[in-house]
């Protein structure tokens, strides 16, 4: 039996189900993973026992137990405590080492994309020189030249040279990416219409070009943070950057490699942390990319 409408009555509205956007699942999973790491870093003193440098010499290389969730290392230091406190160093350096070159490279890319031929060519040739360098060798040489230094603001010794090194090298990717996006967007019909409509140049750039060109740089930023975590851990494994003895995932792996056959968890725990945070950041970047394209 169907209902009939009287004259003047409106068709009743039905609630439409919310359409799930592409990338929502990846974005949610990645955000949960990264969020858990961030919360662990914030509340590290509450979820760990003691200081990461505290030693229990009577329980060196102890296996996982109720007292030491992930066991102890060669100096009797609690592995779980060091693992959690290392999040603060790795994520802080990785985030700043990606954010600063992202801002700098994006500004340079915008200038190159909107500038004249000579300015664009000069910026691109400079980026070619940086790309042609053996990056890891150059990075190690640069960090070694700057030395560990001292603490700066909220940074611990050894962190500022790493951030400077990331900035010198990583700005190129953001500059090239945003340059190509700006050149693509500036040729769109709606940008031409805005110009023909008499809008000031600065307004066309800030309202129409940059907001529609910045998306891929934001996506790459999250991937870049994950790559920076791997780079920091690799350098620490080689003894470059973060001072020895500081709780850091790469140095923890380096310290545990001599006892891998008997105490494999000393390498497995920081290795799993690196893989997990990298996966979370990659999922966020992939999810954002799907949403931008949808």
TrEMBL record:
It is a multi-pass membrane protein. Keywords: Cell membrane, Membrane, Transmembrane, Transmembrane helix, Transport. This is ABC transporter permease. It is found in: Cell membrane. InterPro entries: BP-dependent_transpt_permease, MetI-like, MetI-like_sf, OppC_N. The lineage of its organism: Bacteria, Bacillati, Actinomycetota, Actinomycetes, Kitasatosporales. Residues 87-285 form the ABC transmembrane type-1 domain. Pfam families: BPD_transp_1, OppC_N. The chain crosses the membrane at residues 27-47, 99-119, 131-154, 160-178, 218-244, 264-284. Belongs to the binding-protein-dependent transport system permease family. Residues 1-22 are annotated as: Disordered.
